[in-house]
Amino acid sequence: MYAVIAEMDKSKWNDKPGEEYHFPKRYAKMLIPGTRVVYYKGQIKDRSYRPLRLSDKPHYFAIATISSVYPDPNAKRSDLYAVVTDFQPFTEAVLAKKGENYFESIPSNRESNYWYDGVRPITEEIFEAIVEHAERGAVVVPEEKAVEEEGDYNDSFESEATHLEGAKISYFTTKYERKPLLKNQAVKLHGTTCCVCGFNFKAFYGEYAEGFIHIHHLLPVSELGGEKPVNPATDLVPVCANCHSIIHRKKDRTLSIDELKEMIQQQKG
């Protein structure tokens, strides 16, 4: 699937170009995981934004891929966020109109309002035509600030082998990649209170600990069997450091959230 997504210079939407695209629910069927998108800007209206644009005219300025979609936890109208990967900006603007023709195919019954749509479906041929006219820069990897350090419980807790070297013990581990952006999305959705015991670092330690929480994969990263889509709404939950440690205490068993809750209840009598 292919689509054009409009990025406004000034907007009520909480977009982060190259990272997240904030959009209303009516476009949900167009922006699904795997959709290839072209970023678009309309005619400039405020010249103070000129340094941030490639052209004053309507133009395309980047391509990317939608990797996942999750609900806006603060929305009153079921708005959504699309997580963007493989963001590749153009070094020069590709104008929306080439000569007397547009790259996009405008239906005859939409000539007066076609460009008002924030998301517009296009064909693979149109996508490729825009890309062919583009001078593309390098793919951008966002330097997203991760959720506070949460340890390596899901990252590298499987020890493959050990051996002794004098008084030293060496461990060989498998390192599993995790994406900071997913952690931040999970915090947006679920907050920073432990879903098992209810502990909140800020409430206990004060402002210094605000925002600190571990994010737990309900299915450990090591068991995903390679790179797979992760939905922060359903696959990730916030847990405190103590609960996270107990969940992963034994290498041959990962406790479920319900199992750990039951364990706590039994101790309370």
Highlighted features:
single chain, alpha+beta, ph1033 like fold, 2 domains, 12 strands, 27% strand, 269 residues, two-stranded antiparallel sheet, 6-stranded mixed β-sheet, elongated
Our measurement of the CA-to-CA distance between the termini, rounded to an integer number of angstroms, reads 55 Å
Detail the poorly predicted runs.
Answer: 144-164, 170-177
Oligomer state of the chains in this structure: single chain
Strand content: 25-35%
Order of helices and strands: EEEEEEEEHEEHHEEHH
What is the average per-residue confidence, as pLDDT, rounded to a whole number? 82
- Largest beta sheet: strand ordering: 2-5-4-3-1-8
CATH class of the largest domain: Alpha Beta
CA radius of gyration = 23 Å
Shape: elongated
Structural class: alpha+beta
Strand tally: 12
Describe this structure in words.
With 269 residues, this protein is of the alpha+beta class. The chain has helices at residues 124-132, 180-190, 201-205, 241-247, 257-268, and strands at residues 2-6, 20-23, 36-41, 59-71, 80-95, 97-98, 101-102, 119-122, 159-165, 168-173, 214-217, 236-239. The protein has a 6-stranded mixed β-sheet with strand order 2-5-4-3-1-8. Strands 6-7 form a two-stranded antiparallel ribbon. The radius of gyration is 23 Å and the shape is elongated.
Could you provide a short overview of the structure?
The chain has about 270 residues and is of the alpha+beta class.
Fold topology:
Blueprint: E1 2-6, E2 20-23, E3 36-41, E4 59-71, E5 80-95, E6 97-98, E7 101-102, E8 119-122, H1 124-132, E9 159-165, E10 168-173, H2 180-190, H3 201-205, E11 214-217, E12 236-239, H4 241-247, H5 257-268
